[in-house]
Each structure stands twice: as structure tokens, then as C-alpha cells.
Design goal:
Layout lengths: L3 E6 L11 H14 L4 E4 L5 H14 L2 E7 L40 H17 L4 E5 L10 H4 L5 H9 L4 H11 L3 H12 L9 H27 L3 E7 L1 H4 L6 H4 L5 E5 L10 H16 L3 H12 L7 H7 L3 H13 L5 E6 L11 H14 L3 E5 L7 H4 L5
Parallel strand pairs: 1-2, 1-8, 2-3, 3-4, 4-5, 5-6, 6-7, 7-8
Helix pairs in contact: 1-2, 3-8, 7-12, 11-12, 14-15
């Protein structure tokens, strides 16, 4: 069997208003000419003529067209109402990355929000020329930038849902907030974000909350998958890199059976949401800035908790990202978690300040994923800003 090869295309943005059907199809045609891409994961706010042109190109190449669908966030056309948003330990709504609606999360336990999210998915699949759906943003906001301001959700709906499972969310919130006020508590919180509940280094109260969040996300994704299956769709899931999954409410072992395949965002050189160095640096900066950790101690704590090889200094992590050895380990962890059909996400975009890559690093990362025995690759995260010559580095 040939390895799977997916590519993400046309993420929402202001440029789409000026994009012609011919221009969209031409870029896709150029990608098909270079690689045997078998699935195109296409964005969510496209004009019908652009979408149709891409669908025709996919049909010509024999590639499946998946709707790339952010599930639990808003977007530029439909920002989430404040009362639907996830609530932090502080009691305030959790702001999206750079306050963008497409990174502002809604609470899956909020009845009106959940209904609207599923209704939106239903409408998209009813009216689109898709053979599958690729569910993105199936998580809670990442707490990495500031666990006090970005860890949730503690809204009234989550309190009720937790109570039904025997968990007093208010009491948990008080204990976690107290832990975050001491160096010893902070160390246990960091370990708990990355370690299983059975590990002796974790905080049992926080672990119970993380378990509840994982169950919530899995239940909601199951509802979304049911919508997709009703329309005869194949389903792919977009998840954080395995080491980061627990802190955003994703359990690969329970999510995997819902889908046909899973893509892990093991981006070793991305300085934006879901990128391994971005998330780990967020925590390192918080430890240094809010708890007066020495830089070396902060990174040593994160290396110990994650089991990943990390440098001693933040500047090194910013400059070089994670090693290919770390990426191989992440793919192996996905297998250990039970992922049956595993696609490794690899960034091939060139975006100043976010993803600035070089050929040697790309080749090393590709070799690492091959060594881990992945079933394929998901070229990320948008062909539109991907230098085409980088596609030629991919050998499957």
C-alpha cells in the first residue's frame, strides 16, 4: 500500500477575497505534478467558484477532497459570542491567540454553543463537494502561555457536567489556583500536564480534571463524527503532538477509534499555536516571568516532564526548534497511544517569524518520521504559502 499523502490548502484569510478560481486550481495542479497527493484538506470560507475549481482539480488527480473544518472555534465571519467562550481559572473568558476569532474557543459543554457548532458542520457537509471532513481545533485552549489566564473551562455548564461525573469543579479550581501560587505546586502542575494520572509526580486533583476534559472532548468529537458519517464522509482528526495532547484535552487512545486517520501536529519548528517550540516556550517564559525560575531550571523541568530533549536556553529553542530525534519520539508516542493510521504533520510553509525552514532540517525531519513508521504525511499547513520546491524534498 502506498503511504498516504495529504496537503492542507487555503486556510481562511484576507487574501481569499482576491483569489481567482484559476489561481487556486493552478497551485493545486502544480502540487499534484510534483507529488502523488491522495487527499486535499481544503479551507472553510471559500467562495463557491474557488471551491468548485479545486474540486474539479482533485477529481482529475484522483484525490479525495476533505473539508478542513475548525470545530470548536469561531472564524472571521462568525466570531464566538462571549457567553459561549471557555472560562479561565480567573473567571474571565479565555482570549484567542492574538485575539483572533479562529483561535477563540467555545465550550463544548455549553448547550447552545454545542448545538450551533454541530449545526454549522451539518450545513457545510450538506452543501459541499467533499468526500471527507478533517476536524481541526478539537480541543480546549492551550494553557501554555499562562495557566492562570488560559486554562479552562470552569464555566457553569462545565460545573454541571463535572458534577454529573462526581467532580466538584469549584473545589478543583481552588486547589489548582493554590498550586499555581507556589514553586512546588507549579512543578507538580507542569508534570501533570504531560504525565499520565498514574505517575507519582502528578497532582491527583488536576489529573482528575484533565481526565474529565479528555472525556468531554472525545464525547463531542464523537457527535461531530456522527454528523459526518451520516453524510457518508471519511473522517480525519487534527491533534496536538502527543506530548502536548493531555494539556488541551485530547486523548489519542479514545479519539482514534472515531476516525479513519489521525494527523499529529508534531511541528518542530513552528512558532505559532500547536508548534512544539511555541507551546514549550510559552510555559518556559511563564515559569521564568511569573515564578522566577532560572532559565536553565525551567527548561530542565519541561524536559523532565515531557521526556523530550530540550536545550538549556530559550534562545536555542527559538532559533533551532526541536530535533528530529524529538519528532521521531512523538510519532512513536502516537503509536503507543493506539493510533492505527498515523499521518505526521510536517510544516513546509515559509512564514517570517512563524516557520523559517531549511532543506537539511526538512530532510532530517522527514527521515525521522519514516524511521518511526508513520503511515503517511500531512503537508502543513497551507500549500498557498508553501514554496513548491519543498514538495520535491518529500519522498514517500
Amino acid at each position: 500500500m502506498m503511504p498516504a499523502l495529504a496537503i492542507q490548502y487555503l486556510e481562511d484569510g484576507p487574501h481569499l477575497a482576491q483569489l481567482s478560481p484559476e489561481g487556486a486550481a493552478e497551485k493545486l495542479r502544480s502540487a499534484f505534478a510534483r507529488l502523488p497527493i491522495d487527499r486535499v484538506l481544503i479551507g472553510w470560507n471559500l467562495r463557491p467558484d474557488v471551491l468548485e475549481a479545486c474540486a474539479v482539480e482533485c477529481a482529475r488527480a484522483g484525490a479525495a477532497l476533505y473539508r478542513w473544518h475548525p470545530l470548536l472555534t469561531g472564524d472571521a465571519l462568525q466570531p464566538p459570542p462571549p457567553d459561549w467562550q471557555t472560562i479561565a481559572l480567573s473567571g474571565s473568558p479565555i482570549a484567542g491567540f492574538q485575539r483572533m476569532p479562529e483561535f477563540t474557543f467555545v465550550c463544548p459543554n455549553h448547550p447552545a454553543a454545542a448545538e450551533a457548532v454541530l449545526r454549522r458542520l451539518e450545513g457545510a457537509l450538506e452543501n459541499g463537494p467533499y468526500q471527507g471532513v478533517f476536524l481541526d481545533r478539537i480541543r480546549y485552549p492551550s494553557p501554555a502561555s499562562d495557566p492562570v489566564a488560559s486554562f479552562g473551562c470552569f464555566c457553569a455548564n462545565c460545573q454541571r457536567a463535572a458534577a454529573e461525573e462526581g467532580l466538584n469543579l469549584n473545589a478543583v479550581a481552588e486547589e489548582v489556583a493554590a498550586a499555581l501560587r507556589s514553586a512546588t505546586g507549579v512543578r507538580r502542575v507542569i508534570h501533570t500536564f504531560f504525565r499520565p494520572a498514574t505517575d507519582p509526580s502528578v497532582d491527583s486533583t488536576l489529573a482528575a480534571l484533565l481526565d474529565f476534559r479528555e472525556r468531554t472532548i472525545t464525547r463531542f468529537v464523537a457527535q461531530a463524527v456522527e454528523v459526518a458519517r451520516k453524510h457518508g464522509m471519511a473522517v480525519g482528526l487534527d491533534t496536538f503532538s502527543p506530548t502536548l495532547c493531555r494539556m488541551v484535552g485530547q486523548n489519542l487512545r479514545t479519539l482514534d477509534p472515531l476516525a479513519d486517520w489521525v494527523k499529529i501536529m508534531s511541528y518542530g519548528h513552528t512558532f505559532g499555536p500547536a508548534g512544539l517550540p511555541f507551546e514549550l516556550l510559552g510555559l518556559a517564559d511563564w515559569l521564568v516571568g511569573h515564578h522566577n525560575f532560572r532559565e536553565e531550571d525551567a527548561l530542565a523541568l519541561l524536559a523532565e516532564a515531557t521526556g523530550l530533549p530540550l536545550p538549556r536556553h530559550r534562545d536555542t529553542l527559538r532559533r533551532a526548534g526541536l530535533s528530529s530525534t524529538a519528532l521521531q519520539r512523538e510519532a512513536e508516542r502516537a503509536r503507543e497511544a493506539g493510533v492505527r493510521v498515523l499521518l505526521a504533520g510536517i510544516e513546509l510553509v515559509e512564514i517570517a517569524g512563524v516557520a523559517e525552514l531549511d532543506e537539511a532540517q526538512i530532510r532530517a525531519d522527514l527521515a525521522a518520521f519514516e524511521a518511526a513508521g508513520v503511515d503517511g504525511l500531512a503537508l502543513s499547513w497551507d500549500l498557498w504559502v508553501m514554496p513548491l520546491e519543498r514538495l520535491e524534498l518529500v519522498r514517500i
